[in-house]
Amino acid sequence: MRKPQNHILVIFGASGDLTKRKLIPALADLHKQELLPEKFSVLGLGRTKLSDDQFRENMKAGISEFSSKKEGAFDDFLKRLYYYSFNTKEGSEYKGFKERLLALDKETGSEGNFIFYLATPPSMYSLVPRFLADQGLNWSEHGFRRLIVEKPFGHDLESAKKLNRELLEYFREEQIYRIDHYLGKETVQNLLVTRFSNNIYEPLWNRNYIHHVEVTSTEDIGVEGRGGYYEESGALRDMVQNHLLLLTSLVAMEPPALINAESIRNEIVKVLQSLRPIPKDEVEKYVIRGQYTEAQMRGKQVRGYRKEKGVDPKSRVETFVAMKFFIDNWRWAGVPFYIRTGKMMPTRVTEIVIHYQPTPHHLFADDPAIIRQQNQLVIRIQPDEGLLLKFGMKVPGAGFRVQDVNMDFHYSELGDTYLPSAYERLLLDCMLGDPTLYSRGDAVEAAWKFIDPILQAWKEQPCIKVHGYPAGSWGPEESDDLIEGNMTWRYPCKNLSDGLYCEL
Ligand code: BG6
User: Which of 103, 125, 150 is the last residue of a domain?
Assistant: First the structure.
């Protein structure tokens, strides 16, 4: 495997949670697999005053708790971590930071290659690039300069456009890496392999054979102390605008000409640009929002969203969204896409369900009203990652009774195959200069363009209902009405093949 060039990874917001829980454990895992360059170091930045040793000690705790490869010592990795404290909001303080960075570069032999990671509150996303540029750190003839921007990328279409413009003033698009950690998930990338390396799926992957597509991503936890952030965000911004629309794009995209950043990202953006806009006055017909209320969950009393810390007791922020929409292009004309996400649901699951058209003539249905011969392909992103195909089989014995059976593959069957974490994969890709799994500016804007009218309708029309749903349930009953006919959502269990009933 190709190793990245020597470099320094500079983390803005290094005393925050993301650095400790995700970034440093992922880097420690890369170190264990010997995937980091020989001369690599991390320079953590933040206002909190810490010595290098104190920073290392804090990160050690993060690695012990959150890294995948905990066994063995990682002292030699910790020696690669450094810390510099300054006020990152103050342009005048960047001179001192630059001096520290260049000194470290000399000391460690990083050859003037820097990646800047913005793990800060979003208000810093436009400030830091400007201050870096003031110090001439945004470009160099000799080394690479890259910028990783965490989510949320904007709050709506206008702010996302503004942020793109601001970043592009100081960095070129090829230098900007916008993270959506869902693309770093192994099973999300496998969507491309499933579709484009097998001839059995692709010929059926269109409006002629697919009845509808369902994308579900639920969690069995609440806002976990992030009430303040969530009040500003809600499920539509937090999960739908980015992760769920990205999953939809990978399901719906055309085969790229090549597996490279340009080709794949071109196809993703084409899907996002083909989403049929939901008119503001029809939002209630296509989008159901909900909020969890107090209930018993697995024998424990769980408080409602409005009682969470940092949440307005009268909050109308949604913790659940289910929606129906169409992709107006040749392949998908008329095929409904249903997507849903929620907090405090019965289980944590992310999956895509392809519902095939029923057979044209129902030879074996006992009751013609029940269309049995409807195959499903379940692509399980997490947990119990894998693939499941549901099809009809003859029940042995007299007559022609048909029963649905499962054919399944679980990643866990691959024995000692290691599934890298999303951040591991994405950090390594950025180090290698490969932006394929990062979002391009135009894709982020196209996703916001689709979401914006929904946000506006909710803001302008308070009569649009926020449905309460008891914590531990599958969300408001009204979300079932989105799906026409006698069909419902799949109510998945934690285990891929266990049908209807769920762990409660
Ligand atoms: C984040 C959201 O982007 O994704 C969180 O901000 C959510 O609210 C998380 O919990 C879910 O990610 P994962 O990888 O656990 O499915």
Answer: 150
* Residue among 305, 187, 149, 314 at smallest CA distance from 235: 305
**With contact defined as beta carbons under 8 Å apart, do 349 and 218 qualify?**
yes
Q: Nearest-CA neighbor of 60 among 37, 77, 85?
A: 77
Give pLDDT tens digits for 14-55.
999 999 999 999 999 999 999 999 999 999 999 999 999 999
**CB-CB contact of 296 with 213 (8 Å):** no
Atom of ligand 1 nearest to the CA of 226: 8
Per-residue confidence (pLDDT) for residue 361, from 0 to 100: 83
Domain match, 143 and 288 both? no
pLDDT confidence of residue 374: 80
Task: Check: CB of residue 154 under 8 Å from CB of residue 448.
Answer: yes
> Which atom belonging to ligand 1 lies closest to the Cα atom of 221?
10
Q: How far is CA 78 from the centre of its chain?
A: 28
Structurally, how many domains does the chain consist of? Answer: 2
Domain range enclosing 276: 183-482
Residue 80 and residue 118 in contact, taking contact as beta carbons nearer than 8 Å? no
- Among 155, 238, 382, which residue has the most ligand 1 atoms within 8 Å of its CB, making it the best to mutate? 238
Measured by CA distance, the residue closest to atom 8 of ligand 1 is: 238
Residue 103: burial class (beta carbons within 10 Å; 0-12, 13-18, 19+): exposed
What torsion, rounded to 10 degrees, do the Cα atoms 203, 370, 377, 320 define?
120
Q: Check if the beta carbon of residue 179 is closer than 8 Å to that of residue 209.
A: no
From the list 7, 211, 212, 243, the catalytic residue is: 243
